[in-house]
UniProtKB/TrEMBL annotation:
Gene Ontology terms, MF aspect: 5-formyltetrahydrofolate cyclo-ligase activity
EC category: ligase
Catalytic activity, as annotated: (6S)-5-formyl-5,6,7,8-tetrahydrofolate + ATP = (6R)-5,10-methenyltetrahydrofolate + ADP + phosphate
Protein name: 5-formyltetrahydrofolate cyclo-ligase
Keywords assigned by UniProt, alphabetized: ATP-binding, Ligase, Magnesium, Metal-binding, Nucleotide-binding
The protein's required cofactors: Mg(2+)
Lineage of producing organism: Bacteria, Pseudomonadati, Pseudomonadota, Betaproteobacteria, Neisseriales
Domain of life: Bacteria
Organism: Vitreoscilla massiliensis
Family statement drawn from the similarity comment of this UniProt entry: Belongs to the 5-formyltetrahydrofolate cyclo-ligase family.
UniProt EC number: 6.3.3.2
Amino acid sequence: MHDKATLRRHLRRQRLNLTATERRSAQAQVCRLLKPLLRRGKNIGMYLASGSELNISAILPDAMRQGCQLYTPYIEPNQRRLWFTPYPAAPQHGHHVLNILQYEGKKRRLEQLDIVLMPLIGIDQRGMRLGQGGGFYDTSLSFGRAQQPLRIGIGFAVQQYDHIPNEAHDQALDAFVCENGITVFSTRARAWLAPYV
């Protein structure tokens, strides 16, 4: 199982095979692990779960109470580089693009955030992320290399894989959070997350 398409099918099946109880338990544990990152004044990019992705919406009330500014992805037509718009926004301004619920509002680029929480299909021991295949996050992470947010992948433990094939444009993550804990891949993440891992 070496090519990305086969690997995506395999890891999606793994995720879909989780029971409702396993899924709820994992989501609750991941949200507990994320709470220490919700610091006042931080700009945090997050996703609104689609399909069988791990749902982290339970952190929203805590993040807002802590004084974080949350942002969710915004895709412009024919563009791969993501914008992020403030959350929450008025419900009437939300619409779906590529199964992603997105809101209108003052837009920021990914490199203007402090932390970005990313969904994934798979993650390997080096922090290489396997996404949906659209290239939105990898394209966005390739900009502003001198100033990057802390890049954290979110998923279930069953989405971990020994080695995910990568190409020159693929971007490694700083850390991965699943129900089994936080895995750190970079020295920068180690400094940020040292009290919690």
